Amino acid sequence: MILGLTPVELINRARADLRLGVPVILRDGPAAAIILAAEMATPARLAELQMLGPALVLALTRHRADTLKARAYDGDLARVVVPAGAQVGWIRALADPADDLRHPMKGPLRTERDGAADFHRAALALAKSAQLLPAALVLTLDTIAAVENAGLTELPIAELNTALASETQLSAVISARLPMAAAQAGRVHIFRPRDGGVEHYAIEIGQPDRSAPVLARLHSACFTGDVLGSLKCDCGPQLQAALTQMGREGAGVLLYLNQEGRGIGLANKMRAYSLQDQGFDTVEANHRLGFEDDERDFRIGAALLRKMGFQQVRLLTNNPRKVDMLNDHGLSVIERVPLRVGETDENRAYLATKAAKSGHLL
Ligand SMILES: Nc1nc2c(ncn2[C@@H]2O[C@H](COP(=O)(O)OP(=O)(O)OP(=O)(O)O)[C@@H](O)[C@H]2O)c(=O)[nH]1
Ligand SMILES: [Zn+2]
């Protein structure tokens, strides 16, 4: 006999469904809702939802709602009423700010005030965790009968919320020696989250003494900076400078965390870059897309360092949040080592915005 899927397995299936444009059913006891990622909506799928019931809603985060001048009665999110006959283009324009400046008048938008927003909040969290735009069509169902035999993934929201909020458990997969330009004595460790998320890497230089403070860096993936040598940020030079300093000192550990774009994923980061070309700064661009300034789960870095046996770190960073987070999650940062490299004409304003709005130290 095959037992049912665990919540973690169901969540991963639900993420894949949303990314494919397949609806997912959320359950809360006897209550249920059907959700669809707004950016993946097609005319056919939208028509299916519109036929199931009249009360179709587009859930948006407060940041996106603020941009659209829609009232967010639920605090952190808004439930925008989808008018009968609304087309996919209307949904997409609300979800995606790409054309905000060209077509500023999207309203007036009517948002719901009464009733619960639990399904909507869960739908947005799931869309974010699938690295989609945080915008979801939500139809609360009177009865689940109409969708019961469609083979859709069904997810209890209590379990979904618990799983999304809990600390990721990581398993060590393999490690192997890697001589690098910055240090001959390098070793790459691969860690796999047990929640089905993307793998993260640790680059160990030399043989750091576990009973002494280790020179450490938490580096968030930046395809454009790390690989392409982008001049828009300082990630590539920071990565190289950190490895070089560890090589020079003979020991250190650099965590390469796959949290591209401060946790929003590369597609959304490129959407943010496109908005930056329209004149918005890095924080404003994230907000217009509906994200927080920083969506990273920094607990993963702390968990990895602890798992590797480290307790005390000298942390290479300009970001005081990283220091606080490690101190709050079982490590002690005995020194913050500044990492100021790679300033260019192109990234000067970006670095200044991070100092002014995100608390980075100059
Ligand atoms: N969303 C978004 N992400 C960006 C942008 N520019 C760089 N990133 C991402 O930001 C992350 C690097 O974060 P930073 O804020 O530069 O540095 P930090 O890691 O917080 O702090 P430091 O330790 O001082 O470097 C990487 O994941 C990059 O992909 C941007 O304009 N928008
Ligand atoms: Zn970068």
Quick gist of this model?
One of its GO terms (molecular function) is GTP cyclohydrolase II activity. By secondary structure, this protein is an alpha/beta fold.
Bound molecules: guanosine-5'-triphosphate, zinc ion
Query: What is the H/E order?
Result: HEEHEHEHHEEHEEEEHHEHHHHEHEH
Could you estimate the helical fraction of the residues in percent? Answer: 25-40%
With helices defined by DSSP (H or I, 4 residues minimum), what is the helix count? 14
CATH fold-level name of the largest domain: DHBP synthase
Percent of residues in beta strands: 15-25%
Q: Provide the number of structural domains.
A: 2
The level 1 CATH classification of the largest domain is Alpha Beta
- Order of strands, widest sheet: 7-8-9-11-10-12-13
Structural class: alpha/beta
- Principal-axes geometry comes out as globular
EC number: 3.5.4.25
GO molecular function: GTP cyclohydrolase II activity
Active site: 294 (proton acceptor), 296 (nucleophile)
Keywords: GTP-binding, Hydrolase, Metal-binding, Nucleotide-binding, Riboflavin biosynthesis, Zinc
Description:
By secondary structure, the protein is α/β, with parallel strands linked by helices. It has two domains: 7-164, DHBP synthase; 170-259 and 296-357, Rossmann fold, CATH 3.40.50. Helices cover 36% and strands 22% of the residues. It is built from 14 helices and 13 strands. It has helices spanning 7-20, 43-52, 62-67, 88-95, 118-129, 157-165, 223-227, 235-249, 260-263, 266-277, 282-289, 299-307, 320-328, 348-357; strands spanning 24-28, 31-37, 56-61, 77-81, 135-141, 154-156, 170-177, 186-193, 200-205, 214-220, 252-257, 312-316, 332-337. The strands form two sheets. A seven-stranded mixed sheet has the order 7-8-9-11-10-12-13, with helices on both faces. Strands 4-3-5-2-1-6 form a six-stranded mixed sheet, sandwiched between helices. A hairpin with a 2-residue loop joins strand 1 and strand 2. Helix 5 crosses helix 6 and helix 10 (266-277) packs across helix 11. It is globular. It starts with 6 loop residues before the first helix and ends in a 5-residue tail after the last helix. The model has no long low-confidence stretch (mean pLDDT 94). The protein binds guanosine-5'-triphosphate and zinc ion (ZN). Guanosine-5'-triphosphate binds at residues 220-222, 233, 235, 238, 259-262, 264, 269, 272, 282, 286, 317-319, 322, 339, 354, 360.
